[in-house]
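Fill in residues.
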C-alpha cells in the first residue's frame, strides 16, 4: 500500500499542477482591473476553467490516498512517527480540501450566467480569487515541512532532499507578502 500511496501522491500533485497552473492558471487580471475585463475573462475562458477545475477535483481525490499512505508509513516509526503522521495527515487533508475549494470556486465562476449579473458579481469574485488557493498552499507547506522534519527524525527522505524542502518552504513563506507564486511552484515540483 505504501508504493501505491506514493504513486497516488505523485499523480495527485502532477494533476494539481496541470489543472491549476497549466490548464487553468487563473486570470491575469487583478481585482483592481475594470469590471468589464474581469467579466470577459470569465466568459471567454469557460472551457479552460471547467477542464482545469475538473482535473483539480480528481487530483484532490487522489491525494487522499497519498496522505493516508504517508500517515501509515510514519505511524510505523513509533511515538515520534505517530505524532509526525498526525501532523502530515492534518496538513494533507487541508491540502485536499484546498484543492476542492479552489476547483469548486473556479467551476462556479465558469457557469453560464446572465452578463448583467456577472458584471455585478465579478468584483467580489475577483477579490476572493486572490485568496482561494490559500488553503491549498497552507496544506502544501505543511506537508512539505512535515516530510522534511520527518526525514531528520525517522529517515523518511534523504537529508539533502529534506534540506531543500525546508529551504523551499522558507522561500515560499518569505514570498507570501509579495504575492509571488514562484516559491509555491518550486515547492510543488519538490513534492513531485
Amino acid at each position: 500500500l505504501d508504493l501505491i500511496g506514493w504513486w497516488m501522491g505523485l499523480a495527485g500533485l502532477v494533476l494539481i499542477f496541470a489543472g491549476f497552473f497549466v490548464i487553468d492558471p487563473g486570470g491575469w487580471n487583478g481585482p483592481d482591473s475594470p469590471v468589464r475585463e474581469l467579466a470577459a475573462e470569465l466568459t471567454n475562458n469557460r472551457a479552460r476553467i471547467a477542464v482545469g477545475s475538473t482535473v483539480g477535483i480528481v487530483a484532490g481525490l487522489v491525494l487522499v490516498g497519498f496522505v493516508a499512505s504517508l500517515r501509515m508509513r510514519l505511524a510505523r516509526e513509533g511515538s515520534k512517527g505517530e505524532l509526525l503522521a498526525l501532523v502530515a495527515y492534518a496538513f494533507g487533508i487541508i491540502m485536499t480540501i484546498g484543492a476542492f475549494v479552489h476547483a469548486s470556486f473556479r467551476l462556479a465562476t465558469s457557469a453560464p450566467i446572465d452578463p448583467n449579473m456577472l458584471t455585478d458579481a465579478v468584483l467580489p469574485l475577483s477579490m476572493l480569487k486572490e485568496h482561494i488557493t490559500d488553503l491549498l498552499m497552507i496544506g502544501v507547506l505543511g506537508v512539505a515541512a512535515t516530510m522534511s522534519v520527518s526525514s531528520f527524525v525517522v529517515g523518511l527522505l534523504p537529508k539533502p532532499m529534506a534540506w531543500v524542502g525546508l529551504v523551499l518552504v522558507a522561500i515560499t513563506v518569505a514570498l507570501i507578502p509579495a504575492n509571488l507564486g514562484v516559491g509555491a511552484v518550486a515547492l510543488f515540483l519538490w513534492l513531485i
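Residues 29 and 38 are 6 Å apart (CA to CA).
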